[in-house]
Automatic annotation (TrEMBL):
Residue span(s) of domain DUF1468: 10-153
Bilayer-crossing regions: 41-64, 76-94, 100-122, 129-149
Keyword list, A-Z: Membrane, Transmembrane, Transmembrane helix
Species this chain originates from: Xenophilus arseniciresistens
Domain of life of the source: Bacteria
Name of the molecule in the record: Tripartite tricarboxylate transporter TctB family protein
Length: 162
């Protein structure tokens, strides 16, 4: 059978693989049943739903005709690396790396670093817009997680708060 839309085919394939991975991982928890759901029930159902949707997308990519076959373009390496790096930097700054002596920098600094690095991935990076977005996200995160939900985690670096 001929692939009529490469983009849809590989997107559907990715959905199927991620869905199967989630469903498989959920089986290590107690699944339970519909009346008494265990901690693995929701991820199992979500994984199955994602895999079924992926199969539907794969099927349509094989059946529905497209004008040019919707080929997959080249991989945008710069944005890919910057977005993944931004998330890794966020995690490292939020929790620190005790193995190398890097202390946790807290939520606010981690958010600013995340937004500034991820902002470089766009076609026209703007420091001003990145700082505005980081401020809005930092204030919103503080209000939601610290004030609203009363979660207990480090907001500022220890050298500032003591």
């Amino acid at each position: 059978m001929k692939i009529k839309s490469q983009k849809d085919f590989f997107a559907g394939l990715m959905f199927v693989l991620v869905g199967i991975g989630f469903a498989w991982g959920a089986t290590t928890y107690n699944v339970g049943n519909g009346a008494r759901m265990g901690p693995g029930y929701f991820p199992l159902m979500l994984g199955i739903l994602l895999a079924v949707l992926g199969l539907l997308v794969v099927f349509t990519s094989l059946v529905v005709e497209t004008a040019d076959g919707e080929p997959i373009g080249t991989i945008a390496w710069k944005p890919l690396i910057l977005i993944i790096s931004a998330n890794l930097i966020f995690g490292v700054l939020l929790g620190g790396l005790p193995g190398i002596g890097l202390p946790a920098m807290g939520l606010i600094i981690a958010i600013y670093a995340l937004v500034l690095v991820a902002g470089l991935a766009g076609p026209n990076p703007s420091l001003k817009l990145s700082l505005i977005l980081a401020t809005i996200l930092a204030v919103g995160s503080y209000l939601a997680f610290i004030v609203g939900l009363k979660l207990q985690f480090q907001v500022w670096p220890t050298f500032i708060t003591g």
